[in-house]
């Protein structure tokens, strides 16, 4: 998936002999092979990977260069960012996409081996951190972060999901190293451990929390957006490749922008396409990548994201995965600025769309939006057999979640959804007369 996990530390220790690849793998003078490393199931990188590949936009941009070269794109699919970084520093991958914490390891590894890389664009982001979630088993009695004290919690060390866990625990006064039994596991292993009962909770990144919740194998304990710290995914390129083939990198970034426009204009079709390519349920893909999904897609390297990246360095240093990282020298948006032209300045200041409630009717090519969660419930109530999925934003954080998996609160005539029980109970404590109710009760109250 999108974040570096168990292999991250080992990759930092790979021998220097891994270097030595050509600046452009597979070039023979007239034919240039551009190698792109991506993660098909990391659905917040799809505009630089899965979706981009299926649309063929990069190949079209390369063919339009008119420089007398024949271009071939070698798409290489990986499960995490770690092997992409290893291949990049060996000169075998030119462009790669991964999450923010693996991007930092990518920067550290490139500098260590004398094969520097640069963050050249962003794919998907959430300014509050909602892409990471801590979940428990459906029948778990754990209700708050403090309940995790002494418990076994699975996560992937070196990932933003681990960063969320560390920061969340620190905020409630639990030592993340001594206060819990941390299990350093790949996401799939952690998911199995949660189901088997060998882990009490799982802190992971998109799309695992949504997938497990959708499948009825987990429920949310903590919404990462409560941290109010941005998390994102981005595109990294080798410095030598970028300098030797700037037009090719710009062609990639133009194509990424076009794929972003397609996703934003056709979110249902994009979700179906990604679902078909990855095997993930389209309903889960849409939760993150939909019109009002948890992730916002924009290639611009926003200052808020760079600032967040700098704060992430401390987490990796504490885990002894990296030393100091010069984030400013790692970030290089000159190529995406040129690729996007006059639009770039506007993109830098653009804000994510306001959260909204949505229903995906069965057989429909478009979703239906509602002004409030209560209105959505009223629709669901009268169309029970015609609903493919229903989504509502957390009343506190705005994080989108499945309506039937949310924690509901009745506050007078208002019906308010929350991702996690702690945020729901906090709202109740601050609003006299409000109380937590079941989803069935919420549906019953809807008009």
TrEMBL record:
SsuA/THI5-like domain span: 84-270
Name of the protein this chain belongs to: ABC transporter substrate-binding protein
Stored SUPFAM superfamilies: NosL/MerB-like, Periplasmic binding protein-like II
InterPro entries (UniProt xref): SsuA/THI5
Entry keywords, A to Z: Signal
Species for this entry: Streptomyces longisporus
Leader sequence segment: 1-20
One Pfam short name: NMT1
């Amino acid at each position: 998936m999108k974040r570096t996990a168990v292999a991250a530390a080992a990759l930092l220790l790979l021998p220097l002999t891994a270097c030595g690849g050509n600046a452009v793998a597979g070039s023979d003078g007239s034919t240039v092979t551009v190698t792109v490393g991506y993660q098909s199931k990391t659905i917040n990188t799809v505009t630089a990977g899965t979706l981009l590949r299926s649309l063929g936009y990069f190949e079209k941009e390369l063919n339009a260069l008119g420089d007398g070269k024949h271009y071939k794109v070698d798409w290489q699919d990986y499960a995490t960012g770690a092997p992409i970084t290893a291949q990049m520093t060996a000169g075998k991958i030119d462009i790669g996409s991964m999450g923010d914490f693996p991007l930092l390891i990518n920067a550290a590894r490139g500098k260590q081996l004398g094969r520097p890389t640069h963050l050249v664009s962003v794919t998907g982001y959430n300014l509050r951190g909602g892409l990471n979630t801590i979940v428990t088993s459906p029948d778990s009695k754990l209700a708050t972060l403090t309940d995790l004290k002494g418990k076994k919690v699975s996560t992937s060390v070196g990932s933003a999901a681990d960063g969320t866990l560390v920061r969340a625990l620190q905020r409630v006064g639990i030592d993340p190293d001594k206060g819990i039994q941390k299990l350093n596991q790949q996401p799939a292993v952690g998911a199995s451990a949660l189901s088997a009962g060998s882990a009490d909770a799982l802190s992971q990144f998109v799309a695992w929390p949504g997938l497990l919740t959708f499948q009825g194998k987990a429920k949310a304990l903590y919404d990462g957006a409560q941290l109010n710290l941005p998390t994102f995914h981005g595109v990294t390129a080798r410095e030598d490749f970028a300098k030797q083939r700037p037009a090719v990198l710009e062609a990639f970034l133009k194509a990424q922008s076009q794929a972003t426009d397609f996703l934003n204009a056709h979110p249902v079709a994009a979700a179906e396409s990604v679902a078909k390519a990855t095997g993930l349920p389209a309903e889960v893909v849409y939760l993150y990548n939909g019109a009002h999904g948890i992730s916002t897609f924009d290639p611009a390297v926003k200052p808020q994201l760079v600032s967040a990246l700098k704060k992430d360095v401390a987490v990796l240093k504490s885990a002894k995965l990296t030393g100091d990282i010069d984030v400013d020298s790692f970030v290089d948006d000159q190529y995406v600025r040129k690729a996007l032209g006059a639009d770039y300045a506007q993109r830098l200041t653009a804000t994510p769309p306001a959260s909204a409630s949505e229903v995906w009717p069965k057989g429909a090519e478009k979703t239906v939006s509602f002004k409030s969660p209560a209105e959505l419930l009223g629709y669901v109530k009268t169309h029970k057999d015609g609903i493919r999925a229903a989504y509502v934003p957390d009343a506190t954080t705005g994080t989108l979640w499945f309506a039937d998996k949310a924690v509901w609160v009745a506050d007078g005539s208002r019906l308010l959804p929350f991702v996690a029980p702690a945020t729901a109970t906090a709202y109740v404590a601050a609003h006299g007369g409000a109380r937590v109710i079941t989803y069935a009760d919420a549906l019953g109250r809807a008009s």
